[in-house]
Structures are given as structure tokens and as C-alpha cells.
TrEMBL record:
Residues 147-244 form the Mandelate racemase/muconate lactonizing enzyme C-terminal domain. Keywords: Magnesium, Metal-binding. It comes from the Bacteria. This is Mandelate racemase/muconate lactonizing enzyme family protein. The lineage of its organism: Bacteria, Bacillati, Actinomycetota, Actinomycetes, Kitasatosporales. Coiled coil: none annotated. It comes from Streptacidiphilus alkalitolerans. InterPro entries: Enolase-like_C_sf (IPR036849), Enolase-like_N (IPR029017), Enolase_C-like (IPR029065), Mandelate_racemase_C (IPR013342), Mandelate_racemase_N_dom (IPR013341), RHMD-like (IPR046945).
Amino acid sequence: MTVIVSASAYLVDLEVDQKRTDAVQSFVKQETVLVEIRTDDGRTGTGYSYTIGTGGRSVLAMLREHLLPRLPGQDARAVEAVWFDLFGSTRATTVGVITSLALAAVDTALWDLKCLRADEPLWRLAGGFRREVPLYDTEGGWLHLTTEELVSGALASRSAGWRGVKLKVGKPSAGQDLERLRAVREAVGPDLDIMVDANQSMTHAEARRRAAAFEPLDLAWFEEPLPADDVAGHALLARSTSIPVAVGESLYSVAQFREYLARGAASIVQVDAARVGGITPWLKVAHLAEAFNVQVCPHFLMELHVSLAAAVPNGRYVEHIPQLHAITDDPLEIVDGHAVAPDRPGLGITWNRDAIDDRRVD
């Protein structure tokens, strides 16, 4: 038995390096919630989750007032048991965003400990399918950028050997979106994957109309065209277009993914380890998707998701949006257009404690 002796949580604000906009919001900062769990063998595991600008203090309160007090005395090796104990203790707020984000911060810390005890990296202990995963860029595709800027960014990604770029859509008219996408496709040629992301901004009728307009451009996927709780609408859209429909960043439980997959409403699964409640449920979603012959392209959190996407056979892509570099020491390794999972024991994230202390807001 490896007994948890203490657990703590704190909040760090990370400003964005450049302006980030989509059809419904601007990404102004990342509220990063970190959890540290100490065990009686002298080890400390560090986990984290995040919000985009709001709600970080609510996640912190959930951790400090409800979840962390239950940890001392529990066996850190029993990751599933701890997860279900915490989940069961918060029945009144599950399934819910705040609870899932809080659970994720604990669960990733326990997985960090699990890997440290085994002296293995996360990508291997979580499955070990391969170490490298193709990379696509989102940072050059924000909605406020001009067509010329989109083209320049896509050409730079292609020159760097990256396998794809994601462009935000949701301009006031379909013609505006189409003009931007067509310019990028004509510039990069047929071999670079182009993904588009509407960030839940459209009705079913509008998404179907724009999908029809986009089809000649051979897009890799159409992401979150409709509100995330509109499973029926996504299923109808998926049946009406040849473009794969991608969902998952705004789903918060394994059961929600099951509904999408069972109804044929998702061709690409973008499960986010923070939003689904941690690595434990992330792996369940990935394996569930594999059973439906669906690929996993996780949302955001590239520093963590590179290891998870590498662990499973259906991990297709890692999304490039750098956000943790201000509080970490080792950048994501990129080789020949692939993200390389860290090979050091633990989550593979080297935290800069001084930088974290400088940015603590609690």
C-alpha cells in the first residue's frame, strides 16, 4: 500500500502569447489548477486541469472543500478506486464541468505517481502503442486573422513538415469562410490536412449548408458545428456530408461519448483529459472509440495529450497550441511533423516551480 499523506491545490494564471478568437469567444488566459499529492514513500505527483478565462476558482474550491480532504489515507495505487470514490462523493454535481475539471487535476496527479513508482513514462504505462504522433497546428488559424495570414501560417506549417492545419470558421457568411478556406487549399495543395472548427456556433441547417459548400476542399474534419448537447443534430449532419464530423472537447463523461458513437454522430473523437475527468476516463473513451473504429484527436493540452495519443492505437493527431511553456522547462519535441512523447518517468511535464510560484494567484 502506498498511502496518500497530503494533497494541495493552487491556481496559476497563464496569459496567451497571441490573440486567439473563434466564432463564439476569445481565449484571453488559461486558469491552470494544479494539484500536488504526497505519499508515504516520499514521492509527489503533480496533476492539472484548466479553464479558458473563467471558473478556475470554482474548480479550486471544489478541490479544497470537497475532494482533497478525502484523499489522505487512501492508497495512491488504486487509481480507479480513488476516482470512483471522489465521483461518488459529488453526486449532486456530476456529470458537470466543474467537477470533471477538479477530478482531472487529482487523477492526473495519481497517474504521475503511478508512472514515477513504475519508473516509466506515461505513454508506455498507458498503453505504449508508439512514441510519435502526427501534429497539426491551430495557432495559425484563428478567426480574426486575414486570409493572407491564414495562407502564410499554413505554408509555414507545411514547410516545417507538419501534417495539418486547423482553421476557425463561422464568419457572418458562408462565402467569407469559403474564400478563406479555398485560398489556403490552393496555396498548400492536396497533401496537407485542413481541419475546420465552428466552435458550436451553427444551427443544423446552417452547418449542413456550409458543409456542402466546403466538401470540394477535401477537409479532414468539421469540428463542433453544433452545440455539444445536440447529439441528434450531429447525427443528421454526419449522414448528410462526406466531411468527417469531430466532437468531444465539450463533452464531460464517458457516457456522453457513448451516445455520440452509438448514434453515428462522431467520426472523430476529440476527448480532452481535463474536461472528461482525467486520464482514467480519457483512456476509456479512447478504447470505446476504437471499438467503433473511430480515431482520437484530443483537444488542446498538447503537453499531456502527446503521451495519451501515443499510448493508444487509434490516436491520430496531437493539436499544437502552446500554453504551458511559461511554467515548464522542456518544450514539446517535434520531429518530422510528429510530436514525440516524453520518455522520462511520470507525465513527462517538467514543471518550473519558480515560474509557477511567480504566477500563483491564490
